[in-house]
Amino acid sequence: MDHVIGYDLARGLHIIAVIAWISGLLMLPRFYAYVTSSQAGGELETAMLKAAKNLRLIILGPSLVLAWTFGLFLFATYLAGDWTRPLNEVLGQVPHWFWGKLLLVLGLSGYHGYLTSEGRRIAKGERRRTEKFWRLMSEIPFIVAIAAVLLATLEP
Questions:
Q1: Is position 2 within any domain?
Q2: DSSP tag of 21
Q3: Is 34 a member of any domain?
Q4: What is the pLDDT of residues 67-112, one digit of tens each?
């Protein structure tokens, strides 16, 4: 079966999309921290709200879609030779580390959704969280990314 895209190219594009996604997830809470600490209606708040919206629309949304798309392609390619067996048997052969990585990625996807929802609230003028909270939240994607990368590279 010929593919439009090869495994190595898909893997490279997946990594690039994940880097963009994690970078955005690291930056977005910092923008929220700046908004939270700024004067309502001021120049800094306006600039940070615009930057946060652009980050969500231009980088985070597309990189999330591309990371998942290429990740699912890689997973399907990994399983491609096994489709003649029952699905539960095929999935039973998937390494345990993969399921851990998948859970971490699902968690990051949920975190992405949370940040998007909070961004809409912040844009409406709601300041439910402190600057310190947002600064702490900006560390979460890095910690999760470390765990996901180590699972994928060490394959414990």
A1: no
A2: H
A3: yes
A4: 999 999 988 887 766 667 777 777 777 888 889 999 999 999 999 9
